[in-house]
C-alpha cells in the first residue's frame, strides 16, 4: 500500500495531555550508602543532578572520594564471609524481598527514573522497573541451585565486586549487576552514573528496608574518578562495567595482571536487516523500536538499517510517515514516545554526529516536525539515507535518535555489511523465511540477534557482545558465570 505522506499535516491529530501527577519526594542531599547506612561523604564533595527535560535541579548527590571508596570496600569485605556462607535458599529470600519491594514501589521508581534520566514514563513504567524486579526474581531462583548450573563443580563466590553502570537504564543496570552477584554469594559496591544516581539510592532504601545484612550491597555515587578509584582498589576481586568502549579499554589495561576478574558490556552499532520478503509494516515498527526506544540511548540499538535495495523507497516512505506520528516532549506525559536527551553533553555529541553525517554527504531526513520544548535537552528523531559504510555515522556509536540507512542486494552482501563494524553486540533480521533467519543469524558477529522483532529483553536470556562490544554475559544462567569460581569435583565426568 502506498501512503501519501503529503496528505497528513502536523497538528491534525492531537492528544490531550496525560501527565503523571503522582508526587515523589526527593531528599535535597543524597548521601552514600555504605555498610547498611546512609553516610556523608568523607570527601565533603557533592554534585548536582538535573532533570534533563526542564534543566531544573533535582538534588545534591554525594561525590565519593578515595576514603569513601576505601570505606565501601572495607564494608563489603567485612560482610563477605558471613554472606557467602549463608545457605543459598536464605540469600534467595533476600533477593525475593528486594524484587517484591521494587514491585510495590514501582510507580515511585518509574517517576524518579523519568525525572532524573529523561526517558518517557511509559518506558520506565512498563519496561525498566518491571524488568529490574524480574532480574531479582530470576536470580533469587538460582541462588540455591548453583551446583545444578555448574554440574560437576563446587561453586564459590569471587569475592568483592566493583560494579560500574551507565545512565541509559539506571535501575535496570543496577539489577543486572547486583542480582546475579548477590545470588552467588558475593558482596558489592555499585557506582551509578553521575547524571542518574537517584533510583540506585532509592534501591539502597529498599535494601535497608528488607534487612539485607550490612555491607553486602553498598552504593557509592560520584564521577568517573570515583569509578576509577573503585576499579583500581586492591580489595576488589571483580570489576563489572557497562559503558563506553573507551572507558572499557582503560579498565582492561588497569586490571591486567592484577588477578581481578573483569566483564565489559560496551558500545554497539547494531545492524537491523530488512529483507524484501519481510512484513514491511511490522518491520517499520521494529525500526522505530530499534533506534528510537529510550531516545536511542541503547547500546544494542539498531542504529544501522540495512534494507534490501528493491524495497528502499517503500521503507523510507513508511518510516517517514511513522516518524511524523511520534510524540516528543514531556517525559512524564503517558503519551510521550521520546523524552529528553540525558544530558547537555550527550546532546552535543548527538548534534556533532548529525553535522558529520551532513558534511560527509549523507542525506538527512528530519521529517519529525513537532515543536520541541524550549527548556531541556531535545533532539528530533531523524534518519539518514545515502550513507556509505565509511561514513562516521555508519561506523561510530551515536547513542541518540539518529538512524543510518544503507542498502544491500544479496544475503551475502547483507552479512558482509552487517559484520563490517568494530562492534558486535546486537543485530536484527526481518524476513518471512525461517530458513533464511537461521542461515543469516549463524553468520552474524553479534551477541544478541532478534528475528522479526527488536529490543526485547528477558532476565532468562543472556546478553553481551563480541569484538569492541566487550565480553562476558549478563542475564540467564550464563550471567552467573562471571560471579563464581569453579572447582571440578574429582571423578566427575563433566
Ligand atoms: P562512560 O563510559 O564514561 O560512563 C559509564 C560509567 O563509567 C559511568 O558510571 C561513569 O561515571 C564511569 N566512568 C567514567 N570514567 C571512568 C573511569 N575512568 N573508570 C571507571 N569508571 C568510569 O560513558 P559516558 O557517560 O561518558 O558516555 C559517553 C559515550 O559512551 C556515549 O555517548 C555512548 O556512546 C557511550 N555509552 C555506552 C553505553 C553502553 O551501554 N554501551 C552506556 C553509556 C554510554 P560518570 O557517569 O560519573 O562519568
Count of distinct strands:
22
> Uncertain regions: pLDDT < 50 for 5+ in a row?
none
Which ligands are bound?
A: NADPH dihydro-nicotinamide-adenine-dinucleotide phosphate
Number of helices: 15
- Largest sheet: spatial strand order: 14-15-16-13-12-18-19
Q: Find the CATH topology of the largest domain.
A: Aldehyde Dehydrogenase, Chain A, domain 1
Strand content: 15-25%
How far apart are the first and last residues' alpha carbons, in Å? 57 Å
User: What is the share of helical residues?
Assistant: 25-40%
Within CATH, the superfamily of the largest domain carries the name: Aldehyde Dehydrogenase, Chain A, domain 1
The outline comes out as globular
Domain count, please report it: 2
CATH class of the largest domain: Alpha Beta
Radius of gyration equals 23 Å
Describe the structure.
The protein has 494 residues and is an alpha/beta fold. It has 2 domains: 29-266 and 470-487, Aldehyde Dehydrogenase, Chain A, domain 1 (3-Layer(aba) Sandwich); 271-459, 3-Layer(aba) Sandwich (Aldehyde Dehydrogenase, Chain A, domain 2). Helix content is 37%, strand content 19%. The chain has helices at 66-85, 88-104, 106-117, 121-142, 146-149, 170-183, 198-209, 224-232, 245-255, 280-291, 312-324, 344-359, 392-395, 411-419, 434-441; strands spanning 29-30, 32-34, 37-39, 46-51, 56-62, 153-157, 160-164, 187-191, 217-219, 238-242, 261-265, 271-274, 304-308, 363-365, 382-385, 402-408, 423-424, 426-430, 448-451, 466-467, 470-471, 484-488. The strands form 6 sheets. Strands 14-15-16-13-12-18-19 form a 7-stranded mixed β-sheet, with helices on both faces. NADPH dihydro-nicotinamide-adenine-dinucleotide phosphate binds at residues 164-168, 191, 193-194, 223-224, 227-228, 231, 242-244, 247, 250, 266-267, 299, 346, 349, 397, 399.
Amino acid at each position: 500500500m502506498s501512503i501519501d505522506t503529503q496528505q497528513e499535516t502536523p497538528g491534525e491529530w492531537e492528544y490531550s495531555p496525560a501527565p503523571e501527577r503522582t508526587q515523589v519526594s526527593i531528599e535535597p542531599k543524597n548521601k552514600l550508602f555504605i555498610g547498611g547506612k546512609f553516610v556523608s561523604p568523607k570527601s565533603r564533595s557533592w554534585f548536582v543532578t538535573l532533570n534533563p527535560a526542564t534543566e531544573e535541579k533535582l538534588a545534591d548527590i554525594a561525590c565519593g572520594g578515595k576514603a569513601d571508596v576505601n570505606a565501601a570496600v572495607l564494608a563489603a569485605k567485612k560482610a563477605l564471609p558471613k554472606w557467602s556462607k549463608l545457605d543459598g535458599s536464605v540469600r534467595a529470600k533476600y533477593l525475593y524481598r528486594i524484587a517484591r519491594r521494587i514491585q510495590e514501589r514501582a510507580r515511585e521508581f518509574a517517576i524518579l527514573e523519568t525525572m532524573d534520566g529523561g526517558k518517557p514514563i511509559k518506558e520506565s513504567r512498563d519496561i525498566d522497573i518491571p524488568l529490574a524486579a524480574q532480574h531479582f526474581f530470576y536470580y533469587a531462583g538460582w541462588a540455591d541451585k548453583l551446583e545444578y548450573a555448574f554440574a560437576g563443580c563446587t561453586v564459590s563466590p569471587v569475592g568483592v565486586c566493583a560494579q560500574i553502570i551507565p545512565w541509559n537504564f539506571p535501575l535496570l543496570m543496577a539489577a543486572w549487576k547486583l542480582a546475579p552477584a548477590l545470588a552467588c554469594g558475593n558482596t558489592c559496591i555499585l557506582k551509578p552514573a553521575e547524571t542518574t544516581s537517584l533510583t540506585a539510592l532509592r534501591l539502597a532504601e529498599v535494601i535497608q528496608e528488607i534487612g539485607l545484612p550490612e555491607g553486602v550491597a553498598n552504593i557509592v555515587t560520584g564521577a568517573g574518578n570515583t569509578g576509577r578509584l573503585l576499579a583500581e582498589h586492591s580489595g576488589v576481586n571483580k570489576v563489572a562495567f557497562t559503558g563506553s568502549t573507551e572507558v572499557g579499554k582503560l579498565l582492561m589495561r588497569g586490571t591486567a595482571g592484577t588477578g581481578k576478574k573483569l566483564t565489559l558490556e560496551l558500545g554497539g552499532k547494531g545492524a537491523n536487516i530488512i529483507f524484501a520478503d519481510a512484513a514491511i509494516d511490522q518491520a517499520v515498527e521494529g525500526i522505530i523500536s530499534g533506534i528510537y526506544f529510550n531516545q536511542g540511548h541503547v547500546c544494542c540499538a539498531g542504529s544501522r538499517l540495512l534494507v534490501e535495495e528493491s524495497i528502499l523507497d517503500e521503507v523510507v516512505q513508511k518510516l517517514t510517515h511513522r516518524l511524523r506520528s511520534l510524540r516528543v516532549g514531556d517525559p512524564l506525559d503517558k503519551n510521550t514516545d521520546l523524552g529528553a536527551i540525558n544530558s547537555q553533553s550527550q546532546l552535543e555529541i548527538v548534534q556533532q554526529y548529525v553535522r558529520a553525517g551532513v558534511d560527509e554527504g549523507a542525506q538527512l531526513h528530519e521529517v519529525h516536525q513537532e515543536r520541541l520544548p524550549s527548556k531541556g535537552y531535545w533532539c528530533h528523531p531523524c534518519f539518514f539515507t545515502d550513507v556509505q559504510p565509511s561514513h562516521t555515522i555508519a561506523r561510530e556509536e551515536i547513542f541518540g535518535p539518529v538512524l543510518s540507512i544503507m542498502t544491500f542486494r544479496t544475503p551475502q552482501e547483507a552479512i558482509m555489511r552487517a559484520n563490517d563494524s568494530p562492534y558486535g553486540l546486537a543485530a536484527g533480521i526481518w524476513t518471512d523465511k525461517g530458513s533464511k533467519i537461521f542461515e543469516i543469524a549463524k553468520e552474524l558477529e553479534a551477541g544478541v540477534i532478534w528475528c522479526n522483532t527488536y529490543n526485547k529483553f528477558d532476565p532468562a536470556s543472556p546478553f553481551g557482545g563480541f569484538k569492541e562490544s566487550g565480553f562476558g554475559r549478563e542475564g540467564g544462567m550464563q550471567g552467573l558465570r562471571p560471579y563464581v569460581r569453579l572447582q571440578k569435583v574429582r571423578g566427575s565426568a563433566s
